[in-house]
Design brief:
The complex is a heterodimer of chains A (108) and B (113). With 108 residues, chain A is an all-beta fold. Chain A is built from no helices and eleven strands. In chain A, strands 2, 4, 5, 9, 10 and 11 form a six-stranded mixed beta sheet that branches. Chain A has a five-stranded antiparallel beta sheet with strand order 1-3-8-7-6, with no helix packed on it. The termini of chain A are far apart. Chain B is an all-beta fold. In chain B, strand 5 (44-51) and strand 6 form a beta hairpin. The termini of chain B are far apart. Classes of the chains: A mainly beta (108), B mainly beta (113).
């Protein structure tokens, strides 16, 4: 079993709609969680950290569910520029483990 | 502006050849990392270094070597022992506490010709 698993998608989303997707992790001792955004053939960029209480940054909301060992990302009012691959990142025994990413395609 | 610089952006390697990928950061970060990304897979850790003159193997270190002679620099050599080197290579750095996440360089795309 992979340490971090994501639905690869693609999630095809009409502009203005809401999209949400999850990421599951296997190490129950993990303490740090992140969502990164990666555009095609570019480096990943930190989108947001995920806190135990959940956190929101503009149109993006991240949640952590420790009991079920997953984190989620919700994007409201999707923009064309939100089209990207979203990487789930979880610390595991002091090292960050990356999911393979969920592709989101926002269509006009 | 502070950041991480990787060079070259594209690199072509012949069979049996060693090549070195450069990674330089001016963020004053202690820790540096090398990852490999293949299509449809998550980033896989090759090597990491948390302090000058010290580094540790990651999950896929075979066929790679690194050095950390300066805090700012963490070059990666892809040796001829790496049988499938074609991939996107990403260098990252962080302050000691991973809670703040990593900053990535723009990557080097290596192709075997």
């Amino acid at each position: 079993r992979k340490e971090v698993e994501q639905d690869p998608g693609p999630f095809n989303v009409p502009e203005g709609a809401t999209v949400a997707f999850n990421c599951t992790y296997s190490n129950s001792a993990s303490q740090s969680f992140f969502w990164y955004r990666q555009d095609c053939r570019k480096e990943p960029k930190l989108l947001m950290s995920v806190y135990s209480s959940g956190n929101e940054d503009g149109r993006f909301t991240a949640q952590l569910n420790r009991a079920s060992q997953y984190i989620s990302l919700l994007i409201r009012d999707s923009k064309l520029s939100d089209s990207a691959t979203y990487l789930c990142v979880v610390d595991s025994w002091g090292k960050l483990q990356f999911g393979a990413g969920t592709q989101v395609v926002v269509t006009p | 502006d502070g950041g991480i610089t990787q060079s070259p952006k594209y690199l072509f390697r012949k069979e049996g050849q060693n090549v070195t990928l450069s990674c330089e950061q001016n963020l004053n970060h202690d820790a540096m990392y090398w990852y490999r990304q293949d299509p449809g897979q998550g980033l896989r850790l090759i090597y990491y270094s948390q302090i000058v003159n010290d580094f540790q193997k990651g999950d896929i270190a075979e066929g790679y070597s690194v050095s950390r002679e300066k805090k700012e620099s963490f070059p990666l050599t892809v040796t001829s022992a790496q049988k499938n080197p074609t991939a996107f290579y990403l260098c990252a750095s962080s302050i000691e506490d991973e809670f703040y996440g990593y900053t990535f360089g723009s990557g080097t795309r290596l192709t075997v010709v």
